[in-house]
Give the backbone structure.
Amino acid sequence: MWPVNVRLPRRLAPCLVACVALTLGPPTQAIIHGLTFPGTAISTVKLSIQHAHFLQSVEKWEYYSSMCSAVIVGLKPLTLLTAAHCLKEVRLDSPQGLPMLSIAQPELLGIEEVSLRQAFYRPFETVSEDLTQDLAVLVFDAKVNSLIQPLPIRVDDEIPSMLMICGYGRGYGEADTRHPRCGERKPVRDLSDFYQVLPKTYRDMDEMLHLQAQTQFAYTQELVHAEKALLAVNRLNEADQYDHTVPMPTVGDSGGPWLVINAKGQYELLAITSLVERFYNPSANWPFFQKQVPLSEYPYVAYGLRLSHPEVMGFLQYAQHSGADIRFTSAPLFPHVGRP
């Protein structure tokens, strides 16, 4: 049972910042090397979030801001989904105690007079121990003048053969954009098989580093505490070789949508970006580490929180019953995104 109020207690006010990979850095901003889409076409927005961190050494507050991605799932009232870890150390306003955040450049989406009404999310301490809690529902009072289509949430457990992942921001050397980027990817079919993340050829090149990476990967799985909670994509090309040019969620994409297309050619929401994982120890024996590319370009695996997972569904239904505009669907998929 979800509590009646899932905001952070007010006494924690300025306390928690978005951290894709939960222990791996700040919130994400874009699909590296993806293609730019209008935000209205994929119902994806950029959030600007205000944070506060208490510096114990000098006993003062440090204020900063971040950005995350979010997806529109309803218009009556305007309802967004994003990753709960984006609200780590979020500042809370008074007297409502709501997170201090806003939709960046709402005029690009034809949205006016935007004001946060409700927020449903878990504290970062809870999210960092259980990734099934990494979801926030944001409800706004707003005037929507565009033809933007809210995305229905897909409720079945079918793993598609292809999906599209979207988010805001840019990778190393990429120009900034006011619109989200998207990349089409095949999901990893079996998360219990580490060779689907780093193939056996890389183990043959450096067995010790491969074992270290596998240990890190296994630890991440322990954070889930539930089966079938995550989808994942790796950064392997068609030849099963690691390729840093393959589109991939990275620092900045948190909360962005993982989309499939139904039989009517309409997008449906399958998951949101939750975690981006890297294995940081370079090896001279792994050829891709010899390229002049910053570590920010080296995500190995990215996870999307599946919205059809029972615990996630319970949270979404609670938010729906409390005023959020959320729709669910199990309509037939377009053939190329169904089972192979």
In short: The first strand starts at residue 31 and ends at 32. The helical segments are 39-42, 124-127, 200-205, 207-222, 310-321. The radius of gyration is 19 Å.
